[in-house]
Write a structure and sequence with these properties.
Strand order of the largest sheet: 1-2
Helix content: 55-70%
Order of helices and strands: HHHEHHHHHHHHHHEHHHHHEEH
Shape: globular
Largest sheet: 2 strands, antiparallel
Number of helices: 19
Number of strands: 4
Strand content: under 5%
Amino acid sequence: MSGQPADKYSLSSLDYAFSVRQCVVGAQMLFVAFGALVLVPILTGLDPNVALFTAGIGTLAFQIVTRGKVPIFLASSFAFIAPIQYGMRTWGPGGTMCGVVAAGVLYLLVSSLIRWKGLKSVYRLLPPIVTGPVIMVIGLSLSPSAVHMALGRTGDGSAVLFPVETALPVALAALAATIVVSIYGKGFLRLVPILSGILVGYLAALVAGIVDFSIIAKAPWLGLPAFVRPTWNLQAAILFFLVGIAPFVEHVGNILAVGAVTGRNYAENPGLHRTLLGDGIATSLAGFFGGPPNTTYAEVTGGITLVRAFNPAVLTWAALTALALSFVTKLGAVLQSIPTPVMGGIMILLFGAISVVGMNLLVRAGEDLVQPRNMAIVAIVLVFGIGGMVFSAGDFVLEGIGLAGVTGIVLNLILPNRPE
């Protein structure tokens, strides 16, 4: 029954949605998403339990907005790791959450633009020549942090946490496991390379004796997640608003991908404007509770394809399972006990992969990067974003990924596009 067309099911299909099989498969889909879901809060200093909570409510909100038609799971977005890390250092949790809410607002605006003018209007403003290098900046700007952590230092390299001769083997074990599973894994195992890397790295850290169990022992079994309320911060709002360009591209790709595997055109029904609206509401909700921005999870699309479970009710159960686990405080403590080198090893591959996604976007679009206009846009975006260029006006500062996004948009609008 699970292989029948997805449009047959909706949130009103309670007899099917609440079957035992759907519950089990839904929990399995959360397992597919789990490694990536908790990795973002672990790397950025947010509470993993809050990330589980916001993934759950975000997915449920998405299903309500899209009328229960699209089998998609939403959770922590990798694109926002650098902005969250910067925001936590610069503005604290409250200001950072203001930025997360603003990222959701971008989706709401793009959703309105698509409903009004169509998808082509968005692509004219944000073509691959802009989005490609901005995504590359996101990955490349994070690379020093990955290396620092793999070598046993803090993300900014300011302090040594573990000796390099102890940290590096642990990091390489986690990295190797992630690569091996992603390439050679079969069936369901191939869908969880990050989780596999975390498990292998954690075992290596246990052997090396660098796991601190005190945080686990002190944590109660159950409790409320450490929710954080946003506080107004204009700089954070602008930064996260601009970084949201990259997940927008990812969202469109994932909606088309899930439509391909289910045989349905979700860009038409319920409409891309509705899926973006649902994603934006989910992201803004995450900001109001203190979680990372949400995005659609391609690995879960792979999971539902593997088990032929195209009923969106499956992901309702995944969301409910995430909500239930968010109140298990001991689970969050276990996740927070993962040593820094384990995360660093996985990040080496992860952040490099983000950059490759940006390059692939340019390649698939067939952009001629030697053409002077394209070369100018890509070159300036990369150097401004990675090189540390800063523009300031009074207390307002624009740098890094935010500056890269603004630069790409402005150059694309003002530079003449001369015909060949």
